[in-house]
Amino acid sequence: MQTNVGVQPVGVQPMSVSSTMMSIQQPEAWGSGICDCCDDMGICCCAFWCFPCFQCSTVSQFGECLCLPLMDPGCAGYCGNSMVCPPVSMAMRAAVRERYKIRGSICDDCCTLYWCLSCTWCQMAREIKRRKQPIRVVTAQTTSVNMALNPQPYQAPQPYPQPYQPYPPAKY
């Protein structure tokens, strides 16, 4: 059985509306310079007196394996400079730059690490310490209070009910 139902073609398709919001963060510079040892003397003293311990501590604060810096070749960790660009230090510096969106390049990292390994590690430690500081967010909310135009008179609070006491027996 066929029925003749009037079918009309759709003239306009429904449109889907979507919006995407993207935030592009511009890379920023390091929080301190390579030779800014006076910004945090504790970091620089630790690096001066026991550089391998300092490296391991810095890597641990960054969230990586504690013994990772000990894999750098040669005695780079013991004397604070290197004849080659240490690969673990390069990876660490690139990771710090990437995580904190600091501008720079691998070439910059290599040159900085080659010429002053200990100062570069101090700079990374200061940056990690600075970024780990808790951020305080202060919010304020305005509250409006409506006062009644006809204030009610103050009523004293009612006394608490007394515990149940049976009536005394009736006298006849």
SSE blueprint:
Blueprint: H1 41-49, H2 51-62, H3 76-79, H4 87-99, H5 106-115, H6 117-131
Helix pairs in contact: 1-2, 1-6, 2-6, 4-5, 5-6
Distance between the termini: 99 Å
The helix count comes to 6
Estimate percent helicity: 25-40%
Average pLDDT score:
79
Low-confidence blocks of residues:
none
Shape, principal axes of CA atoms:
elongated
User: How many strands appear in the DSSP assignment?
Assistant: 0
Order of helices and strands: HHHHHH
From the helix content, strand content and strand pairing, which structural class follows? mainly alpha
> Which sheet architecture does the biggest sheet show?
none
Provide the β-strand percentage band.
under 5%
Radius of gyration: 36 Å
Describe it.
This protein is mainly α. The chain has a domain at 40-131. Helix content is 37%, strand content 0%. The chain has helices at 41-49, 51-62, 76-79, 87-99, 106-115, 117-131.
